[in-house]
């Protein structure tokens, strides 16, 4: 009798498991893409786990903490972001202007040109420190997280809006101004010595 | 001459069927496993991923056939062919419809059981020839499992054969439907000779054959190395068991043999227990449903449908039940299934003498 009882019990317990999988087999519900903010976010365990990624995406907040963006018109080229970056992915080359070039949207006076403002997104570790130190809040993190490139150099984002010719012109202007200043200084010194 | 052409056409046809079935079954297996695990499964290649297995087989065909230096070249090379041919030759004696059988032999069941036992030899050759510890372990497990499970499977089948009184599969099939003119009884008390359909299937002709069918089904899972009896391939312990070293089309043949075996054992189960090519619809009064749905084309449809249902159950079981340990496996075989199938066979003999 023990034999038959154990055989029946084995079949019964197997049937419990098979019933469970049968329920899942026919309960295929498409994954609803509710954002994490939604009340019934955890109801998704009742649907499939798969998100068919490139075709459908989970909604993310507009102010995501993904790739960096720079509003170059608001940048005063203070270089703070490049200094604080733990992985040195920001590369800035500044040229002093001969005079104030204008104001940012929050009223800070700009005195430097950004001849180069490159961010290497392949190096970036998404810590967000650069956005914290930026005095004019021109460097921000965006909701863009998926960018595929064929050449790694395409992941170096260039934010400077100056052409090399313009940069060269500004450099020449600066040199001229500095030369003039130097000359003026020398003249003043000589005058002083003569007295 | 025409005879030989016919032989070749039938052989090629059966091979094409086995290959197409394997393509379909692999796709079905992936989809079923995905749905059971709340995934989607293949969905990029073709509509709903239908071309996925075709793409896979194209990939396998292009792959290099690698001969590791340490293998025994002859055993290693011949094993996949032997494994597949053993299963494929079993198809020769399967009846597909009334009067439609590739090879009408009066010891059909005996022949099938003998020829698919050769598969064990192929598996042992593959394991030993690979010269790899995982392969040998897998092969030893496989042989131990297949040989021990042939006993309950055989006795469960003999219970049905005793009731049918014939080893000729076409004869066994005939006795389970309206085309048979001698007396048939549902569970031994209700004459269903004219009614046919579901009620005249072997499984309902004697109640203990239901138990015999379950025993046969469990044993057939073990014989085709399917989960929960897939310890010869146990991925988590033995990499891939006896076919660890195989690549390209040689691996493809082992795979094809596994799926062909699934269909073959399902067909045997259908033929001996579930009415073979007979319709499940009974004659009800004026509606002669059984007579209307009996014929060559209907026969092929019914037998393939029933076999596919059994294959679906095999897939369903694979994705539900966890793998048995080796000791549990032999325990189940020798202490549960073998005694139960013995009892079934005894009841069959008594039934044949006193009830039928």
TrEMBL record, chain A:
Pfam families linked: Fer4_7
Lineage, broadest ranks: Bacteria, Pseudomonadati, Bacteroidota, Sphingobacteriia, Sphingobacteriales
Keyword annotations from UniProtKB, A to Z: 4Fe-4S, Coiled coil, Iron, Iron-sulfur, Metal-binding, Repeat
Protein name as it appears in the record: NADH-quinone oxidoreductase subunit I
Domain 4Fe-4S ferredoxin-type residues, every copy: 64-95, 115-144
GO BP terms in the entry: aerobic respiration
Any one cellular-component term (Gene Ontology): membrane
Coiled-coil regions, chain positions: 167-194
Organism (species): Mucilaginibacter straminoryzae
GO MF: 4 iron, 4 sulfur cluster binding; metal ion binding; NADH dehydrogenase activity
Signal peptide: none
PANTHER family assigned to the protein according to its UniProt record, in alphabetical order: FORMATE HYDROGENLYASE SUBUNIT 6-RELATED, NADH DEHYDROGENASE UBIQUINONE IRON-SULFUR PROTEIN 8, MITOCHONDRIAL
Source domain of life: Bacteria
TrEMBL record, chain B:
Coiled coil: none
Catalytic activity: a quinone + NADH + 5 H(+)(in) = a quinol + NAD(+) + 4 H(+)(out)
Recorded GO MF terms: NADH dehydrogenase activity; oxidoreductase activity, acting on NAD(P)H, quinone or similar compound as acceptor; quinone binding
Enzyme Commission designation: 7.1.1.-
InterPro entries: NADH_UbQ_OxRdtase_su1/FPO, NADH_UbQ_OxRdtase_su1_CS
Gene expressing this chain: nuoH
Functional description taken from the UniProt entry: NDH-1 shuttles electrons from NADH, via FMN and iron-sulfur (Fe-S) centers, to quinones in the respiratory chain. The immediate electron acceptor for the enzyme in this species is believed to be ubiquinone. Couples the redox reaction to proton translocation (for every two electrons transferred, four hydrogen ions are translocated across the cytoplasmic membrane), and thus conserves the redox energy in a proton gradient. This subunit may bind ubiquinone.
Membrane topology, from the record: Multi-pass membrane protein
HAMAP family according to UniProt: NDH1_NuoH
Protein localization: Cell membrane; Membrane
PANTHER family attached to this UniProt entry: NADH DEHYDROGENASE SUBUNIT 1, NADH-UBIQUINONE OXIDOREDUCTASE CHAIN 1
TM spans (from-to): 6-27, 74-96, 108-128, 149-167, 199-219, 253-277, 297-320, 332-354
A family per Pfam: NADHdh
Subunit note: NDH-1 is composed of 14 different subunits. Subunits NuoA, H, J, K, L, M, N constitute the membrane sector of the complex.
GO cellular component, one term: plasma membrane
Family note: Belongs to the complex I subunit 1 family.
Keywords attached to this entry: Cell membrane, Membrane, NAD, Quinone, Translocase, Transmembrane, Transmembrane helix, Ubiquinone
Protein name, as recorded: NADH-quinone oxidoreductase subunit H
GO BP term, pick one: aerobic respiration
């Amino acid at each position: 009798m023990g034999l038959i009882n154990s055989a029946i019990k084995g079949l019964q317990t197997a049937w419990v498991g098979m019933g469970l999988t049968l329920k899942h087999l026919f309960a295929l519900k498409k994954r609803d893409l509710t954002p994490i903010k939604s009340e019934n976010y955890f109801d998704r365990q009742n649907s499939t786990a798969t998100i068919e990624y490139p075709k459908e995406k989970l909604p993310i907040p507009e102010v995501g903490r993904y790739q960096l963006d720079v509003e170059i018109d608001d940048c005063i080229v203070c270089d703070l972001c490049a200094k604080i970056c733990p992985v040195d992915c920001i590369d800035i080359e500044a040229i002093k202007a001969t005079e104030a070039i204008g104001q940012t949207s929050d009223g800070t006076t700009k005195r430097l040109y950004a001849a180069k403002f490159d961010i290497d997104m392949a190096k970036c570790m998404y810590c967000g420190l650069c956005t914290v130190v930026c005095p004019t809040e021109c460097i921000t993190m965006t909701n863009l997280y998926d960018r595929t490139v064929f050449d790694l150099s395409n992941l170096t984002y260039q934010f400077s809006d100056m052409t090399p010719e313009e940069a060269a012109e500004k450099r020449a202007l600066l040199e001229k101004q500095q030369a003039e200043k130097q000359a003026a200084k020398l003249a003043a010194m000589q005058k002083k010595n003569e007295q | 001459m025409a005879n030989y052409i016919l032989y070749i056409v039938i052989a090629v046809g059966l091979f094409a069927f086995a290959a197409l079935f394997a393509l379909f079954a692999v796709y079905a297996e992936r989809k079923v496993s995905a749905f059971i695990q709340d995934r989607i499964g293949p969905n990029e290649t073709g509509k709903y991923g239908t071309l996925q297995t075709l793409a896979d087989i194209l990939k396998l065909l292009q792959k290099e056939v690698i001969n590791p230096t340490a293998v025994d070249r002859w055993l290693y090379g011949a094993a996949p062919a032997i494994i597949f041919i053993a299963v494929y030759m079993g198809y020769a004696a399967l009846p597909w419809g009334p009067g439609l059988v590739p090879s009408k032999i009066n010891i059909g069941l005996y022949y099938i059981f003998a020829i698919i036992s050769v598969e064990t030899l192929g598996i042992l050759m593959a394991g030993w020839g690979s010269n790899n510890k995982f392969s040998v372990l897998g092969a030893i497990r496989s042989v131990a499992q297949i040989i021990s499970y042939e006993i309950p499977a055989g006795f469960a089948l003999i219970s049905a054969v005793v009731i049918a009184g014939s080893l000729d599969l076409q004869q066994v099939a005939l006795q389970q439907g309206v085309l048979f003119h001698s007396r048939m009884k549902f569970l031994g008390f209700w004459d269903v000779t004219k009614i046919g359909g579901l009620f005249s299937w072997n499984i309902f002709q004697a109640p203990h054959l239901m138990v015999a069918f379950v025993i046969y089904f469990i044993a057939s899972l073990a014989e085709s190395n399917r989960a929960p009896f897939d310890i010869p391939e146990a991925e988590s312990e033995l990499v891939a068991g006896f076919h660890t070293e195989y690549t390209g089309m040689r691996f493809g043949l082992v795979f094809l043999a596994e799926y062909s075996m699934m269909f073959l054992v399902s067909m045997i189960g259908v033929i001996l227990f579930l009415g073979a090519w007979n319709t499940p619809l009974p004659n009800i009064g004026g509606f002669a449903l059984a007579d209307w749905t009996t014929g060559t084309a209907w026969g092929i449809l019914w037998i393939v449908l029933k076999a596919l249902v059994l294959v679906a159950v095999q897939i369903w079981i694979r994705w539900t039940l966890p793998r048995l340990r080796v000791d549990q496996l032999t325990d189940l075989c020798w202490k549960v299934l073998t005694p139960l199938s013995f009892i079934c066979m005894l009841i069959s003999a008594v039934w044949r003498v006193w009830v039928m």
